[in-house]
Structures are given as structure tokens and as C-alpha cells.
Design goal:
With 735 residues, the chain is mainly β. The strands form twelve sheets. The protein has a 14-stranded mixed β-sheet with strand order 1-2-3-5-7-9-11-13-15-16-18-20-21-23, with no helix packed on it. One of its GO terms (cellular component) is plasma membrane.
Length: 735
């Protein structure tokens, strides 16, 4: 009895002590280890909070900044709620010490930027809610420490683009929510390194085309939400997602879908195309698993032109939802109730139906739609695509934001071609046989951000062509006839961010070619015939982050031209005939480079000092399909997330033993195989038995790729680690 009384006394004392430590504006539930400090106008995290607290609710306060180590006194927290706290900034290390936290809610604050170390220390976090902030930019690496995260909610922010590898480190993420942002552009590797992702929400953004290249990285995703985006067309094989089962493209601006659009998504079961501008669909070849297509709310023209699609539905046993808008005799009829003889083409031209927007001019803003074009007042879009027009039409509504004039035959864009369109943001002039963009052609387009001139006949451009469009940020000149960069053409474009000149016939980059492009961040020059880059050719673009030079005729790494590019993070040299990489080839950009592509070059030799200066910042390295038999020391590449060594004929002898040991330590699929000797050919490097006869084989694991570092690397390093390295601390390698 006395022992029981003693225990009760101690418990009451501890409870009293805990209660005494509860901050004045808060309510502490010590039995459940919950603390609530709601709507208290607090400007700092209250203190002292009971150390054993598991759930801390701080909603409705006024913190502005979450400082470094703000929660070090509550290391047992599992749930932290900071909604509506007017937070503007998370300092690096703000949540350090919260290694048990599984739920963090930062919704409805004013955070504008996620810094690289802002979420450091949250190794157990499973749900991160950042909905309703003002996030405009996410620095790659911001999520690098969140290896347990399964749900990331970034809805209702101000994201305009996603750079490559922005979600690196999220190895078990299952649902990524990016709805209700302003996303225009997705990097081709934006979703790389998300092997567990099952659901991606990109609805309610500003995507004007289906981002197929970025989505192709998501092998395991089963659901994709792309509704409420101004996507007008889904091209052939636009979507290559091997596991995709449910695709939502509802409430967009779709006017056409190619027959083979989903041929590379063989598991697709449901396709939601509600509330678009589709008059019909072709038979969807390749979508063999499709079970349901929803076309409700589309202006379906149930004539003989729709009969092949109707027949395909029957053959493939696909359920379809939708009703006819025309011809008048079939208006309101469900699609699945039609019989082929009813779907006639008695009249070459049916009378225009009010339900078919593409056939009826509409009033929007303060102007009517030009004859033969379609205008959507809801989306503020205008389209005259593929109308065989010889002159650019006029008379679009003044509030038009997207103008689609693709696949016409304009030949020339004359001065003042787009009068009254001060609000125009995106202009599509692809495949229009344009050979000249005259001075003043864009005059008055003061809001223009995106200009697409792909697949035309342009060979030169004058700066005066861009007069009056100072906000232009994205310029696409792929597949034209340029033999050199249009020197001086960018003088009037102070906001130019992205320049596409891929698949032209450019032979060299000369000094002065990029004059005026001081804000350029992404330069795409793949598929040209570039043999030479002058040492100062890239100098004006001091903010350059991406340089794509794959598929050219460079015979060496353009090291001299890389000087003066302190922000370069991605360099693609794939498919150039570079057979040798010399010492310090990447030293000028060693402090910033994160992604390096050296694949498919016929590379025969890499100097031992080729990677001098490179180290933990390198996130991905592509060396596949080359002819080298060994590679330099990469033991300090501790931040690697992607390493591709496939189709490289390694000579598996004792000189390769350090590389073999280093691969053992990586939690990466590197694909390294032996090319020789004969008895090892075709075997994975890590499985080859040829190393068992090497001196020191029986010693403990070592890192590094050079024999003289084997012994040192087998000992624990005393240097401070960043915690980002996937190359250590794993029980099993998957190389």
C-alpha cells in the first residue's frame, strides 16, 4: 500500500510540475501530451512547453519567422500545426531536433521561398502541408532530408515552374499535390527520383501542353490529375506512363486528341475528358485496357465523322459518357445510344449550333472573334489552328491571353500584327511557314511571356522584331533554319529566361551572340552542328543554370567557355564525339554543377583529374553507353542520387576493385557490368568473382575508386557530413 501511495504521490507531483510549466496563453493536456496555443497573437514559440509534449497546436498566431532551433526543447513532438501564423520565412534549421515529427502543417501562411536547409532534421516526417502560401520558388534540395515523406501538399501557391530534381530525396513519396498554382513550365527531370509516387495532382495550373517528358519519369504513378489547364491538344504518344490507370483532363481547352496519344500508357483504365471543346475523338489505338471515357460537356458532333470512334467503343467494350450537341436531330442523345446508320453526313456543312463554340463567333472582352476562329471567354483563349490562313487574323477580344495560330501558312509576321492585345501572355505560331519576323511585329504585346515559333523557316532575327514585348521570358525557336545565333537579337528582352534553338543548323557560338541576354537561365542548343564555342560566347549569360548541348559535333569539353557561369547546375554533352575528357574539364563550374550528362559519346578515356573540383553537389551523373574501361575516383560524390553506368565495358580486374567497393556502398541502381575478361563478361560488377583473387579482398568495405584511397576510405570519416549522401548507411546495395 505504501508503495502504491508513493507512486501516486510521485505521479501527482510530476503532473503538478508539468502543469506549472504550461505557458500562460496555452492549454496543456498532460495525459495525452497535447498543448494548444490557439489564436493567442504570439510572436514567438511559447516557453516553457512540457518537454514530453507530442502534439503542439499553434494555429492562428503571428510568428513571421520560425528561427533556427525553435523547437529544440520539445524533441518528442510527433505533430506540429502552424496554420495561419503569418509565417513569411523558415530559417535554415528551423525544425532541427524534431526527429520524431510525422506531421507538419504550415498551411495558410506567407512563405515565398523554401531554402535548401529549411526542413533539415525532419527525418521521420510523413506529411508536409504547405497549402495556401506564396511559394514562388523551391530550391533543389529543400526536401533532401525528408526521406520518410509520403504526402507533400503544395496546393494554392505561386509556383510558375519546377526545375529539374526539385523533389530530390523524396524516395517514398506517394502523393504530390501541386494543384492551384501557376505552373507554366516543368523541367524534363522535375519528377526524377520519385520512385514510389502513385498520385500526382497538377490540376488548376497554366500548363499549355501536356508535359510528357517530365511525366515519363514516373514509372509507378497510377493517377494523374491535369484538369483545369489550358491544354488544347494531346499529341501522338504524348503520355508514356507505364503504370497509369486514371487520367483526368477535364475542364481544359482540348480541341483534339491524337489517335496514338495514350499508346505508351498501356494500363490506362479511365479517361476523364469532361467539359472540353471536343467535337469528337478518333479511335484510341494502343489504349487496350481502357474501360471508361467521359466526354460529358463537350460539343460532340455526332455525324459520320464520329462513327469510327463509336465503332471502336463497341469493339473495345469501352463505356462512354457524353451527349450529342449536333446535328439538331441527334442533339441530347447519349453517345452510347447511337446506331451507326443514324450518324450521317448528309450535308457537307451543317448549320452552326450554339452548342459548338468553334463554329459560332463569340463576344468576349471588348471584341468579337474573327470569322473561322474560336474564342473562349471563360479561358480568354483564341484559336485559328490549322485553318490554312495566309494572313494573321485581327479582331480578337482585347482580353485574350492565349492565342493559338499554329499550322497555318503566314510566311511573314508583319509590323503591328497583333493590335489591341495588351493582355496576351502566350502566342503560338508553330508550323506557320514563317520566314521573317518583321521589325515591330510584336509591338503592343506588353504582357507577352511565351512566344512559340517552332518549326518555321527563320534564319535571322533583328532586335527590332521584339520591340514592344519587354516581358518576353520564354522564346522557342526550335526547328528553324538558323546557322548561327541571331547576334544582338536579344537586346530588347531584359526578362528572357529560356531560349530554345534546338534542331537548327548552328555551327558555332561566337563572341557577342548572346549580347543582352543577361537574365538568361536556360539555353537549349541540342541537335545542331556546333563544333566550336568561343571562350567568351556564353559570358553575357552570367545567370545561366542549364546548358543543353547534346547531339552536336563538339570534340572536347568546352571548358574555357564555362568560365563565368557561377550558377550553372546542369550541363548536357550527350551524343557529342568527345573521346577524351582531360584534367579539370569541369573546374569552372565545379561549385554549382549538379547534373552532368556524358552519355552516348563514344568516350574512350577519362583523365584521373577530369572531375577535379566536383564533389558533394553532384546529384546525377550519366556515363552510360561509352567505351571507357575504368573511371576516375568519385569517392567524394557523396550527394549522388542518379548514377548511370550501363553499357560501359568495364575491365573487371584488381584495378577496378576500389570502384567495385564504392558501388557496394551506394543505394543506387548503377547498372555497371563487366566487358572483360571473358569469364566475367556480362556480369554485374558487384557480382563478378574475379575480384576475389585480388590482394585485400577479404578486408572490410572501402570506398573510393583509386587503390591508394582504399585503406583510408575503409575508416569512418571524421569530417562533418551534410546528411544528404545516399551512398552511406544503407544495409543493402541495389547496383
Amino acid at each position: 500500500l505504501s508503495l502504491g501511495l508513493l507512486r501516486l504521490t510521485v505521479a501527482l507531483a510530476l503532473g503538478a510540475m508539468a502543469a506549472a510549466r504550461c505557458p500562460t496563453p496555452c492549454v496543456c493536456d498532460n495525459l495525452r501530451a497535447h498543448v494548444l496555443c490557439l489564436n493567442g497573437n504570439l510572436t514567438a514559440v511559447p516557453s516553457p512547453i512540457p518537454q514530453l509534449t507530442k502534439k503542439l497546436d499553434l494555429r492562428g498566431n503571428s510568428f513571421t519567422v520560425i528561427p533556427v532551433g525553435a523547437f529544440l526543447d520539445t524533441p518528442y513532438l510527433t505533430h506540429l500545426d502552424l496554420q495561419r501564423c503569418k509565417v513569411e520565412r523558415l530559417e535554415e534549421g528551423a525544425f532541427r531536433g524534431l526527429g520524431r515529427l510525422v506531421y507538419l502543417n504550415l498551411a495558410s501562411n506567407s512563405i515565398a521561398l523554401l531554402y535548401q536547409e529549411a526542413l533539415d532534421g525532419l527525418s521521420s516526417l510523413q506529411q508536409l502541408i504547405l497549402e495556401g502560401n506564396r511559394i514562388e520558388e523551391i530550391q533543389p534540395g529543400a526536401f533532401g532530408h525528408l526521406g520518410s515523406l509520403t504526402v507533400l501538399d503544395l496546393r494554392a501557391n505561386a509556383l510558375v515552374y519546377l526545375p529539374d530534381m526539385v523533389f530530390q530525396g523524396l524516395q517514398v513519396l506517394r502523393w504530390l499535390r501541386l494543384s492551384h498554382n501557376a505552373l507554366h513550365v516543368l523541367g524534363s527531370e522535375a519528377f526524377a527520383a520519385l520512385p514510389a509516387l502513385r498520385r500526382l495532382s497538377l490540376d488548376h495550373n497554366e500548363l499549355q501542353a501536356l508535359p510528357g517528358e517530365a511525366l515519363a519519369r514516373l514509372d509507378g504513378a497510377t493517377r494523374l490529375d491535369l484538369g483545369h489547364n489550358p491544354i488544347t491538344y494531346v499529341a501522338e504518344e504524348a503520355l508514356a506512363m507505364a503504370s497509369l490507370k486514371h487520367l483526368f483532363l477535364d475542364h481544359s481547352a482540348l480541341q483534339d486528341v491524337a489517335p496514338e496519344a495514350f499508346a505508351r500508357s498501356p494500363q490506362l483504365r479511365t479517361l476523364d475528358l469532361r467539359e472540353n471543346q471536343l467535337q469528337g475523338l478518333p479511335p484510341l489505338a494502343g489504349a487496350g485496357g481502357l474501360a471508361r471515357v467521359s466526354l460529358a460537356g463537350n460539343p460532340l458532333l455526332c455525324s459520320c465523322l464520329l462513327r469510327p470512334f463509336r465503332d471502336w467503343l463497341t469493339r473495345a467494350r469501352v463505356q462512354a459518357e457524353g451527349t450529342c450537341s449536333a446535328p439538331p436531330a441527334l442533339r441530347g442523345r447519349p453517345l452510347n445510344s447511337l446506331r451507326p446508320p443514324e450518324m450521317r453526313c448528309d450535308h457537307p456543312q451543317l448549320p452552326p449550333s450554339p452548342a459548338v463554340p468553334s463554329e459560332q463567333p463569340r463576344v468576349a472582352g471588348s471584341g468579337q472573334c474573327p470569322q473561322g476562329c474560336a474564342c473562349s471567354p471563360d479561358f480568354r483563349h483564341g484559336s485559328c489552328e490549322n485553318r490554312d490562313l495566309r494572313e494573321i487574323p485581327r479582331g480578337f477580344p482585347r482580353d485574350t491571353r492565349l492565342l493559338d495560330l499554329r499550322r497555318n501558312a503566314f510566311g511573314t509576321v508583319p509590323p503591328g500584327a497583333f493590335p489591341g492585345l495588351k493582355e496576351l501572355v502566350s502566342l503560338h505560331l508553330q508550323s506557320c511557314s514563317i520566314g521573317a519576323l518583321r521589325p515591330g511585329a510584336l509591338r503592343g504585346l506588353e504582357s507577352l511571356v511565351y512566344l512559340y515559333l517552332t518549326n518555321n523557316h527563320l534564319s535571322t532575327l533583328a532586335a527590332a522584331a521584339f520591340e514592344g514585348a519587354p516581358q518576353l521570358a520564354y522564346l522557342d525557336l526550335d526547328r528553324n533554319a538558323f546557322t548561327r545565333l541571331p547576334a544582338g537579337a536579344f537586346q530588347l528582352l531584359p526578362n528572357l529566361i529560356s531560349l530554345h534553338l534546338q534542331h537548327n543548323a548552328i555551327r558555332e557560338l561566337a563572341e557577342g551572340d548572346l549580347a543582352g541576354a543577361g537574365g538568361l537561365r536556360w539555353l537549349y542548343l541540342a541537335g545542331n552542328t556546333i563544333r566550336r564555342i568561343a571562350p567568351t560566347a556564353l559570358a553575357p549569360a552570367k545567370m545561366l543554370e542549364k546548358l543543353h548541348l547534346e547531339g552536336n559535333r563538339l570534340a572536347e569539353v568546352p571548358t574555357a567557355a564555362l568560365r563565368g557561369l557561377p550558377a550553372l547546375s546542369e550541363l548536357k554533352l550527350s551524343r557529342n564525339p568527345i573521346m577524351y575528357v582531360g584534367d579539370s574539364a569541369f573546374l569552372p563550374v565545379a561549385s554549382s554543377l549538379q547534373h552532368l550528362y556524358l552519355d552516348n559519346m563514344g568516350l574512350e578515356r577519362i583523365s584521373p583529374g577530369a572531375f577535379a573540383g566536383l564533389g558533394p553537389k553532384i546529384r546525377s551523373l550519366y556515363l552510360e553507353s561509352n567505351k571507357v574501361s575504368n573511371i576516375p575516383d568519385m569517392s567524394n560524390f557523396t550527394g549522388l542520387e542518379i548514377l548511370n553506368l550501363r553499357h560501359v565495358p568495364f575491365h573487371c580486374d584488381c584495378q577496378l576493385l576500389p570502384l567495385r567497393r564504392w558501388i557496394d556502398k551506394l543505394n543506387l541502381r548503377v547498372g555497371a557490368t563487366c566487358g572483360s575478361p571473358a569469364e566475367a563478361r556480362g556480369l554485374k560488377v558487384k557480382l563478378s568473382t574475379t575480384f576475389q583473387t585480388c590482394p585485400g579482398w577479404g578486408r572490410g568495405k572501402a570506398g573510393g575508386a583509386s587503390p591508394d584511397k582504399t585503406k583510408a576510405a575503409s575508416k569512418p570519416s571524421k569530417k562533418k557530413r551534410s546528411g544528404k549522401s545516399p551512398a552511406r548507411g544503407f544495409k543493402k546495395s541495389r547496383a
